[in-house]
Amino acid sequence: MTRISVRHFFPHKKCLTLLLLLLAAEPAWAFGSGGARFWFPEAVSSYGAQVDRLFVIVLAVTGAIFFLVEGALLWFLIRYRRRDGVAAAYVHGNVRAEIIWTVIPAAIVLYLALASQRVWAYIQGPPPPHQLELEIKAEQFAWNIRYPGPDGRLHTTDDVETINQLHLPVGQVVLINLSSKDVIHSLFLPQFRLKRDAVPGMTGRMWVQATNTGNFEIVCAELCGLGHYRMRGFVVIETPDAFQAWLKQVQQEQSA
Amino acid sequence: MSPAQHSAPSRAGFWRTYVFSTDHKVIGIQFLITSLVMLLFGGLLAALMRWQLGWPGHPLPFMEQIAPNGMPGGVMVPEYYNMLFTMHGSIMIFFGIIPILVGAFGNYLIPLKIGAPDMAFPRLNMASYWLMPPAIVIMLAGFFVEGGAASAGWTSYTPLSATLGAGQTCWIVSVIFVGTSSIIGAINYIATIINLRAKGLTFFRLPMSIWALFITAIMSLLATPVLASAVIMLLLDRGLGTSFFLPAGMVVDGVPWTGHSGGQVLLWQHLFWFYSHPAVYIMILPAMGFVSDILANFSRKPLFGYHSMVYAISGIAVLGFLVWAHHMFVSGMNPALGTSFMAATMVIAVPTGVKMFNWLATLWRGSIRLTTPMFHACAFLSLFLVGGLTGIFAASMPVDIYLHDTYFIVAHLHYVLLGGSLFGAFAGITYWFPKMFGRMMNERLGLAHGALSFLFFNAVMFPMFILGIGGMPRRIYDWSQYAHLAHFGPLNRMMSVSAFCLVVTQFIFMVNFFWSLFKGKRAPENPWEATTLEWATSSPPPHGNFATPPTVFHGPYEYSVPGRATDWVAQNAA
Q1: Average pLDDT in the B97-111 region?
Q2: SS3 A162
Q3: Average pLDDT over residues A214-236
Q4: What is the value of ipTM here, to two decimals?
Q5: Fold designation for B20-536
Q6: Does the CB of A76 have a partner CB in chain B at under 8 Å?
Q7: Domains in chain A, please, with CATH?
Q8: What is the share, in percent, of chain A residues with pLDDT greater than 70?
């Protein structure tokens, strides 16, 4: 066996150390010089914090398993490296160990599944009573957004239409009916932790409740053709009064 | 032709010996070379994408000669970027990973490891290889047709894929060829493993690599016909006016599509993922098998928990058919379906965990030799772990709402398919190279290639998790216009530099491969002192594999048996 064992894992340890340092320095520089944030964008919807908390729970569980397994792997590679005169153990397995490492992961994923289902049911379940209903119809490569006019109802003559301009009143529950004219698009509002495909032939219903005012962007998250990358929209979350004023202004511009 | 007739000494000429050969070893090596070339090509396409992502809109002057329409003046146009990721994904999956794991190793190893002279259907086997070159030519021909190559992503979601030009037709026809190749290959593997095992080689004496290839073949046989029918339905929708996937009332680019009604857009996704999620396991189970063989050998220990390992891959295969719609949590399907697919997806983590813990326990109290194949096998454990664990984020539906179609998913799938499948493939190549070519590979070059690939892989792929958490969508030609992504410039450039380094590192492997092929040390029959049957014949094995049919008396991993003179007992030792 000795003829194939590797006595010198790396012949030039100094070179390797230097290379490792360089590689470590590069991302450090990249992180530092960008003044970068390495977490989610701020959360501005009622379920944003719940999604983030769920992410942290999954991260904590998987992170612990990650360090445990990688640590054991490294430790075994060092501790049980080939040594003259030391033979490997002749062991075929252990039923108790198999049961332990089947049952514990099963319990962990059961917990994660239940935690996920709770948040899922909140987001996807029956929406709370809403104050506003609007319609978004996607097409290559724009978001057509339709608001009810003064009569408060959609699909009447006083509807207000915009392209790529999504205004939402803060604190109010808003129902969105999402569809598409041509191919699949996906309405992605990163700060709302919301994403839903706009599918031709189907109407998707979802609800949002903004918790903070501010200006954000709509991203198209489903490949929809050559202009996919520039299918960008703008979100303005404002006070209900400012929202009504904006709606009135757009309506006057349209009827003029 | 029966295997017995087939094993007669070959007096065939050059063409029948090296090109249109029915010898499983030649076919395996043909698959190997073809897929290595395609992996390199797919990697170059990825490097080109990384150029655009690192330096959006900056010219790459020499590319104007190569792709005058895609990169006029050396500046990439958006359509060309879409073609690049579509072809990168399609090539890597259909012509790289599946053929190298299933085609190359399946063909080469199955008869040798079960003590058979050849496959059950040698001519069918030859046909399964010779469907690949036309598939590749047709897929790549897309770059030269009007409108360029397919650009709807490797998933070719309808209706976008129904609106695109001739390149998409090339993609569909190519996939039909690949699918046919997979199906007839799978039939052959199943028939061979069931019928041609050596005397004494019971199912529970099969090495894990054969178990994995067997179960992979069953999955392939059940799933691939669904893909084949889906792409044929898409072809009919495009060419003959059917409406499987096209609803009424579509208006594309201002033009009403009047000829269609009643189609269901999501049907494509269900059919596609009914194949393509099992395909993920088709692409990882064989690597798991090779790694099991290699870990046991270089730990000089029996594989820990052999039976539970077999049950675990069987469990993964069954569950693998019940999780497809976890790709569709935000597609608008019924939220109750989301719950059931989440549950099945979470459950699949259990058998995967069982495998991981058994591999670790195999190392425990071993006598570990960190050779090149062993290094790659350990890299597989370390990287596949990340791929598997990040799958739990994507399985948790509310988290997936946010992460779906972001770079988090790109990172996750590359940890599985490059960190897992391809590190597993390189473990396999470096382990079986002496058997295939009768020469040893250079250890120093092998370790340098493995270690540098490991470093650069992590440097390009790990930051993608950060991009995904930051909300960067995938398949995006120019991310820099979005305010919430504006700070990712330096990180993206660092990743691009690492990606270029990762491509360059592969030349170390190429040098090692060709240098060893001609100048490497002559390999003995059993250089790794391994127990399984492929090592009980010469390197390379003759036509017909074994001088006398072997008889098996032992399990596949009898290492360090107390009281023996050597620390290994061959499966066919009396």
Answers
A1: 97
A2: strand
A3: 97
A4: 0.94
A5: Cytochrome C Oxidase; Chain A (1.20.210)
A6: yes
A7: 39-125 (1.10.287.90), 132-255 (2.60.40.420)
A8: 86
